[in-house]
Amino acid sequence: MSLGDRPQNVVLQLQKLLSHFHKGIADIRAAWRSLSPLLSSRSFRHLLPPKRLAFVEACLIGLVSGLAAVLLKQGGGMLGTWRIQSSQQVPAILVLPAIGLIGGCLAGLLVESFAPEASGSGVSQVKAILERSPVALNLRVAAVKLVSTILVMGAGLPLGRQGPTVQIGAALANTLSRWVPTSPDHRRQMIAAGAAAGLAAGFNAPITGVLFVVEELLHEVSSLTLGTAILSSFTGAVVSRLLGGLDWGLNRDPTDSLVVFTALDIPLMLFLGVLVGVWAGIFNLGILGSLALNRRFVKLSLPLRIGLAGLVSGAAIALLPATFRDNTGLWGFLSSGEADIALVATAFIAKFLMTLLTYGSGAPGGLFAPSLILGAALGALVALCSQALLGIGDQTTYAYAGMGAFFSAVAKVPVTAIVIVFEISTDFNLVLPLMITSVVAYLVSDLIAKGSLYDELLKRNNLQPASEPSQNNELLATLTADDVMQRQVETLESHLTLDEVRLAFSRSHHRGFPVVENGKLVGTISQSDLPESSPSSPEKMRLKEIMTPQPVTVSPSDSLAEVLYNLNHYKISRLPVTDGRHLVGIITRSDIIRAEFDRLTVQLERSKRVGVPSYTVYQTRAPELGRGRILVPLANPNTAPMLLQMAAAIARDRNYELECLQVIRIPRHQLPTETPVRTARSRRLLQPAVRLGQHSGIPVHTQIKVSHDIAQAVLDTVRERHINLLLMGWTGRSGGGDWIFGDTVDPLIRHADCDLALVKLGRPDPESPEACPLPLFNRWLVPLSGGPHTKRAIELLPALVSLSSQPKIQLCQVFDPENTTRDKTPLRDAKVFLRQRLNCPILATPLLGTSVAATIARWERKKHYDAIVLGASGKGMLERALEGNIPNAIAQNCRCTVILFRSARS
What we know:
This protein is α/β, with parallel strands linked by helices. 57% of the residues lie in helices and 11% in strands. The termini are far apart.
């Protein structure tokens, strides 16, 4: 075969490879898009939740990135082999500069015409998009980067392919993730996983890919980041080894080590670290200076700049020994021990200057490989000098140590640098010298050139994100679903008939409801889902037949960005929030708008109110089988048994769990997390609750918190445990000063995001100074005001009446004697409701009086009731509270038990 035929054959083979690559990507894209309706469906989301989808997607990204890395390596290797063979048959001084000029011009023309983002190494571009800067990173960029890097490598320019594989992997990951219906945060994780896979496939170093993502790209360690990066890196490295024809190295004898390292080498390793740190700092400044020089003074187009760099590099390589013509094998030659001092010094100087020249021209190519070669040259140089002067120093060991040190100092990633050289060499004995040189070089280099080279490239290219994020972005990033959701959710049971569902919609201002079955979320229903009423419509149809099953949900910890993405993507107006399978809240678009408006005010109010968060020092957990939770703070052993009996009655009626809390108060000058406390008394107080759970079968959880403020501890528990009802005792005395119910109860009434029931246990026997441990509730007085909170209080009665042996319920409504218009609808509705659920005497009596509180107090003294149940809204309970007299009048003038109920629903 003649020399003229070889370029044509190489080009044909390269064209075949590229056509196969494009065809494969096109096939994957077509198949993926054909599955798009399935991937967007709610059933698919239920089958493959976001975290599981991320892991599956990471494996696919690793596969595609590995294929691209192999194609890049094979394409560059083929052109490089042809270039070397050509230089052996034609004078190198003629052919190498010509190939460098032509290859550089073609690569520059490709980048300039189709994807300017493909210039440089590509790592800084990936960092930019991970920092949410508007940078193109798509299939077009990946294809241009792949072909242009092959041309640059084949033309002999002294840049590496590993940096481009990072950008190619990230671009492919970004493309694939956009074909899947996922959120921006999810895509960001996938882009990082693609970068990890690209680097892992480029170096055949999967651990390095993971560490580079954590240490340089994302600067975070989470289960999702590690999981996706590990899977993609492993898959990419496996594909690279399988298709790249590399030895797996599994049969290597661990005792067969080429490393020679003794205590006498430590001072020399420290010197090597300092030397490498100085030169790496100069290298970073030189790269930035070369870029600035080209932009300011070289008024040439990108193809001409890269072509000129290729011409100069080809001429320089032609004048150097033949070993320098193979960039890929140069670091192996420097670490083999075969080079002398003159050759090593020449390699360092030539590689240093040519890298600055080439990278400054804007050529697509990475700095990983040049950094390793320069480090190997410096290490070999120190070893050779040490051998000549001191008789110690192994050239292979020092070359590898220099490789890690230079890479660490340039990219400011010492851990990644240690691991990458270890994975390249597969020799564990290198770890100690690598640690010494990498850390020292990192510290010294940072004194000369602050920060990572890639961060500086971001700034020079104006790709850094804004220093101050917008208020909206900050809101979406910092707030979670738990911060915004409505905790009290109106639900419909799946067994309801169509008539009952229509009735529920007519009585509510909501246009949609979550549908539950045995306390578990099974679907959603909106008003538009209801069939039109007609004589032929099946009115006995059940809700589960028309609801939307397997609804899209979010968890309390999901960010507001994830919530907003789901609302927009699925074109829905509300999102259920679930903790496991339990429905704990719901979010609508109006909730997000309100959160944006109220956030600062709420934070200011809470900062004045809450102080230091409480701290849990003891807890027990039962199986979470209930549909909701009742929180019972316990403090007084005399009232605790009755509170537990009432809570258990409600829990049985609603299939709730019990959460029992005991708070240990400490002085405000002590921190809850650092103050030692004794929990023996608190645990004794919680023991009846544990026994109650064992005997009744109700799940009972207990915990002990340390706090400056009891209200703070209760509010923390309400938030952490998604409490539905707070049931607590109250002395019946007003707080005095600015407090209405007391310094503990008032903050709970204002800020607890759940239903609240205050219980003042009565003293049936006037001679007894203490409350009866188990009062007998037979005669119930229920004053009505007609508001929604009174209705919610009445809903508790069937459960509370179960504590009675012979219950009798008296409903009453107070009217002004001078008002002749008296609406008795609340009386009638309450009586109908209770008669459907209770089999006991229920009386409804209108009362006349100018003062509601005084009238109720007189009626209670006259009829000797055992308990009074009152309902009020949040503000009314504190600021109006039935004309402001209920707390004092009832607590001081009534000896019976008083239950004040405040609903969280507005």
